[in-house]
């Protein structure tokens, strides 16, 4: 779907992309990176809207330097920033975008109705966009990216500004773009956690460079950490120490580091989650020691760990 070879983009004061080589196949792919990592710059180059300084890129087999218009015929784009006219309705705007993509009037109206229904805006479709919530505006932006039935959509921070419920709804819609319509998706975010749930593949960029590109399952396997907190008991006045010892003996790998900022941070053990069996081992070990299990949860990954792999909690030898 997308191939880049040593792609660079230099602005006078900053290198936004630095020899980035990617090969992204069909499906839903997440492009994750902190603000300024180069995500929007990459998207603009892929759409043929901004020339690269060096290197090359192909989208759907078309060279971005020569075939921008053809690429935009088959690729939908949801920009990051609010760019919607406040005085027109969602229907008017999306029909207009469909017409701009070359659809005849009747097809444009039909596709607009279908697409607005898909994104959950059917009831409000005749109201002016200016009165919409942030979530509704994001849906209009998604609808206009889908209306011309593209093969691929590039979604730039579609969950920006949304509350947790709005985020989940948007992520659900994005998954359905692929499952219901077979459209491939490249979606950017600065939050690794939300992309892990949505994407089959995750690409991480930092400072315009590729940090990592792998399937989400590989990613989760190598970074999954379980946080476990237990109570003390009369037999084990330091329940955490007793559990640490017992889990080490049971072959569970403990990770260094503490869960800063959480209540009872010093009493939380971090473990490498090797699979479902780790949950069973922890539950059985806690029960065998007669301790109370306060929490056992998969720790949300912190983006800093991915950007600075050396800062990630490493498996550690814990003295028995
Ligand atoms: N037109 C431009 N002129 C100069 N510098 C630019 C331009 N566009 C982007 N940059 C710089 O390039 C770097 C990458 O920006 P880019 O917008 O691609 O990052 P991003 O990962 O999309 O982050 P964000 O989500 O904050 O937009 C930043 O340092 C940005 O300031």
From TrEMBL:
Residues 2-232 form the ABC transporter domain. One of its GO terms (molecular function) is ATP hydrolysis activity. Transmembrane segments: none annotated. Coiled coil: none annotated. Keywords: ATP-binding, Nucleotide-binding, Transport. Belongs to the ABC transporter superfamily. This is ABC transporter ATP-binding protein. It comes from Streptomyces pacificus. The lineage of its organism: Bacteria, Bacillati, Actinomycetota, Actinomycetes, Kitasatosporales.
